[in-house]
Amino acid sequence: MNCSVFFRRSTWIAFALACAPSARAELLVGDAGDQTPAAVLTYADSAAGAATPLGSFSTAAGNGIAPLQDPSSLTFDPLENVVYVADFYGQAIRVYRAGAVGNVAPLRTLNPSLLGQPRQVALSTLHDELIIATGCCVITYGRYTYGTQAVPSRYLPPSYTPEGRSTRLNNPGGIVLRTSSDEIIIPDTGNGPNNTYFGVVLFFPRSLTGNSSPYRTLEGAQTLLGTSASHISQDEVHDEIYVSSQDSATYPYGLRISTFAGSASGNVAPLRSIGGDATQLEDIHQIFYDDISESLYVSVGGENGVAPKVLVFARGANGNVATDRTIVPNGTSFSRPEGLTVVFDDLFHDNFE
Question: Does domain 9-344 have CATH number 2.130.10.10?
Fold first, then answer.
């Protein structure tokens, strides 16, 4: 197989599997704990226990460059071989080479005031777009757009504003792009009667803008989305989405991660749901499903009295189950793990673009 042939986003996973002997997968973990500035750590994708990072990158303040403060989510672009870092407290999307090491400046930074506090980036390479879930809304920019004066191409406003009453966007926790149907998928918290709250997953056609209603939703008691839906990842090979949620608005929260078919709609039960004491699901910061190893990564703890760790579950995990493996700090690694992704070395470089 010629590993320099161009493939669209929807087929790069199968391509990676076919070319696997020439590539090395690595796990990236964003750390916003005691690191000053915050750092993104690199691990072997088989890391377990008190593993030592293979390396890290960060950006310190200086020479007019703002520091990386809070790598709350990471999105890998295999075509450009870069990682989009959603810097929540830094109010920016910072773009780094996947192999960055040490104190390095981003290749580019997207930080207009409209962006606010970004939660997660969904990348459409087919349309050259960055679709970003922020603390209020969903904003779309050109893939290579940067700077403080960037102008969005689309904007889905929050439902608590006059211009967004139909969107149902209250507090988007993340975003993924389902390429097979060209939809964006967003976990959120719905407002019920008497100030009650419930978890909901909103589906919009990618091209919608303005005061637009979701095309479909996941919500209702059978979904097990509880009082709020917080984070999302996807398994493109099997067309499934992973959604974190909490069962209760008060402690103990009863955190869980549920798996749904990408086409699911309405008040339907998940295909699988992980929850319970054996899972160690407490204080979840981010989730990420790796299609290649068929592993679900979950970053937890580092605050609220919960020990920091990265939990790793097998794809078929269901119920009150233990992790396949767990990564914990070794004194030189993370203290509050957040963003997660898996990158591949030397896979998409030669004549690929």
Answer: yes
